[in-house]
Automatic annotation (TrEMBL):
Keyword terms: Lyase, Metal-binding
A GO cellular component entry from the record: cytosol
tRNA processing found in the keyword field: no
Keyword Metal-binding assigned: yes
Taxonomy, superkingdom: Bacteria
Gene3D superfamilies xrefs: Class II aldolase/adducin N-terminal domain
Protein name as annotated: Putative class II aldolase
Domain Class II aldolase/adducin N-terminal stretches: 34-220
Alphabetical GO biological process terms: pentose catabolic process
GO MF, any single term: metal ion binding
Signal peptide from the UniProt entry: none
Organism: Pseudomonas entomophila (strain L48)
């Protein structure tokens, strides 16, 4: 009798308990830690992440490491929850705490892209449908989203992981495949999963994650009207270069809002 495959939904877990790498932790700038905590709170407040999703920043004193919260909901992150990781995705100072299973998204992009200083991975609800549409690409429709360039590439996990994965980037090989799909772009869709955005600063990464969702909503509305005019690749590049010089404006607005919301937190 042939073996029957069980296609029921089985729990595989989305957290990992990885042993620390044995490397000595290098203390990052406390201001960088604080900004990373605020980035988590902002992304939650703006509806880009919920209980899931994560944001990281490259270590300011060692470019071969990055900083990422332990496995937890972004809206609840505090400074003591930030963990250092190596480029292999190995935690340096987790101390037995669970870490994100998909830390390999961050590790492999940082490894391939030395220009990248910050990464956001999310499942934002209006962006995700573009990851499964073969007819419509996510493209910039306004000057605030020039970072989308000529349109977002799509990572198809089946090409590297087969057709029976849970769509999660669970290891270095899948992380490297995602990084290759991203290429030199700033944004990549992940089919049936979400998206990953990269940037030269943490503030820009947060800005891009927020405005990718804004652009997706605008594009959906424009598609309902029909005959959409998108930014040209040159317009997108010029808009990105100019608009993102103003990234402190939304960052300070968003930061003040979450500071008020988290004023009672005890650190």
């Amino acid at each position: 009798m042939p073996t029957m495959l069980n296609h029921s939904c089985q729990t595989h877990g989305s957290a990992a308990f990885a042993n620390d790498s044995g490397h000595i932790g290098i203390t990052p700038d406390p201001a960088l830690i604080e900004d990373l905590v605020r980035a988590n709170h902002i992304l939650f407040d703006q509806g880009i992440v919920d209980a899931f999703g994560h944001v990281s920043v490259r270590h300011d004193k060692d470019p071969e490491r990055f900083l990422l919260a332990r496995n937890m909901a972004p809206g609840t992150v505090r400074p003591e929850d930030i963990v250092q990781f190596t480029m292999d995705g190995a935690p340096v100072d987790a101390g037995g705490r669970a870490v994100y299973l998909e830390r390999f998204i961050h590790a492999e992009i940082y490894r391939l892209r030395p220009d990248v200083q910050a990464i956001v991975h999310s499942h934002s609800p209006t962006v995700l449908p573009f990851s499964v549409s073969r007819a419509v690409a996510l493209r910039p429709v306004c000057h605030m989203s020039g970072f989308l360039g000529a349109g977002a590439p799509v990572f198809e996990i089946r090409e590297s992981g087969g057709d029976a994965t849970d769509l999660l980037v669970r290891n270095n090989a899948l992380g490297a495949a995602l990084a290759r799909s991203l290429g030199d772009a700033s944004f990549v869709l992940m089919r049936g999963h979400g998206s990953t955005v990269v940037a030269p600063t943490l503030k820009q990464a947060v800005y891009r994650a927020v405005y990718a969702e804004v652009n997706a909503r605008m594009q959906m509305e424009a598609l309902n009207l029909g005959d959409v005019v998108y930014l040209s690749e040159e317009e997108a590049a010029t808009a990105c270069a100019n608009i993102e010089t103003q990234v402190d404006r939304p960052w300070e607005l968003w930061k003040k809002r979450v500071q008020r919301l988290h004023a009672s937190d005890v650190h």
